[in-house]
Sequence to fold (437 residues):
Amino acid sequence: MSGANGPGRHDPFDPDDPYGPHGGEPGGPGSGAADSALRIPTPRSSVEDTGAPLPDVPVPAAPLVLEHRVLKSLLGAWALAACSPEEAVAVEDHLGTCGTCAEEALRLRDAVGLLHAEDPLDLDPMLRSRVLEGCLTRRPARIPVPVWAAPYDAETARLDALLQDFGDPEWHAPVRLRWYEGEEQVSRKTTVAGVIAHLTSVDGLIARALGLEDPLGPPARDGLGPAERTEAYWKASHFPPTRAVRPPWRDQTHAVIRTVSFAGGDASGSGGTGQLPVPYGDFTLPLRDSMIDRAFECWVHAGDIADAVDYPFAAPSPRHLHRMIDLAARMLPDSLALRRRTGLAAPARELVSAGAPGRSLRLEVEGAGGGEWLIALDSPAAVGSAEREVAHVALDGVEFCRLAAGHVSPEEAAAGQLGDREAIRDVLSATAALSRL
Fold:
């Protein structure tokens, strides 16, 4: 049996190898030959020698020799990893001997770390708003968008950006719409395309009020609320909604924004176009509040769509979120009175004349866009009063909006409660009752 190297192979590290540097041939141990150190051992190989010439081994280039001023000028490029390999070696050798340059290189490398923070590939959803705000600060728009229409403008643009790259699988992804009816949470299953069709049909309430084309088409559908309009729009389609619903929805949102902007009126919406009535079937909102209502629903359903396709979607900007929360808080006395008339809330305890202070609940909404509101408990015509406060409830801003959208139950929403439990339960349930299809 041959040795570990096999016949014809030699190990320079094997003392028994007769051809190794310490073998038994002349020059090995005990031979006394002076030239043993000059012998080159046969290299060990894992493949058979084919007789082909060995490849040329590149000879390392001589290191660069640069002056101190040149090396110092290269520190910025070195910190950005923009030097050639030879320059990088020269700079790093220099940093080991020059303390001043080493300190400067450390500062530059830290600064580069700040410039190259790890960011997601997706654009910041607030980038559009910041760019527009910066542009309008330098040159105000000749025809500005009213402040009460700005949330609708922003939320429809954010949703349109989310839809931009959707393929057929995303457009047909299932979405479950949720809202409250009475004391029960109900739901309706549709698709992403179906949600956009729903938004188109309900936004048509504003379009009709402004004299624009109704997406439901002729004949005019007077007296239909959001749910009835949606059902009619869905049933009018011969096939399930597809990506074809996006252009009509987008064109309608642009037309609404252009129309309210050119109509003018004061910025607060307390007069002129902002007071134009928009009928919702069972109730009516002025245009300034209807635009905020539609912005709120656009954001909520954009979140539903984002959940369906497993994509993150941020909350609105704080100033827009505040307007949405303020509208919901102002609608609570009417919602509470409606529930009371149908036997779903406790009877009024202390009726007061219109405009007089009455029993109140302090609604504290925390986080960006939050604030405090005093909710009249016994009559929608009463005025909230800190002196007549009987309860205090605190919620996170986004959680309050999820409650108003019917996405969480009243029992799950409140972060803190103090005072009259019956009043707190009635107000939280009235908030959930603001939701609808």
Strands lie at 174-181, 184-191, 277-279, 284-286, 357-366, 371-376, 383-396, 416-419.
